[in-house]
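User: Hi! I'm working on a homework problem where we have to compare a predicted structure to a textbook description. Could you give me the structure for the chain below?
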Amino acid sequence: MDAVLHALDNLPADTVVVLQPTSPLRTAEDIRICVEMHRESGKTVVSVTEAKPWVFAKAGNSLAPAFDFAARRQDAEYVTPNGAIYVFSADYARSGRQWWFEAVPYLMPADRSIDIDTSTDLVIAKALYANR
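Assistant: Happy to help. Predicted structure tokens:
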């Protein structure tokens, strides 16, 4: 966020679009839709992908559920930010609030949601890109 605020101090704008370079499989259409969603709602838009609600914390040699999921998981939709697109107002950036408060999700398919953090992620991203 420091880089965004620095940019806004030097290049004033009303809307901020953050495109992390580690998420190269998003499309121009994904970006266009997110910007339009932001314009229509006035809220932060965050690209997400489906997530499986099985997350455990490892403490020593034992596991425990990391989150208390709804008793009826089939009634809930779990998503996780994919790092591809964030759209928000300059005022929101300056407010100091975290991006996930009141954010509107933009659901992207898994094949465009790869976030390259490891060499394995890079191999997967290259394979997905080659099959476009």
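For your comparison, note the following. The domain at 2-130 is CATH 3.90.550.10 (Spore Coat Polysaccharide Biosynthesis Protein SpsA; Chain A). The CA atoms of residues 111 and 128 lie 7 Å apart. Good luck with the assignment!
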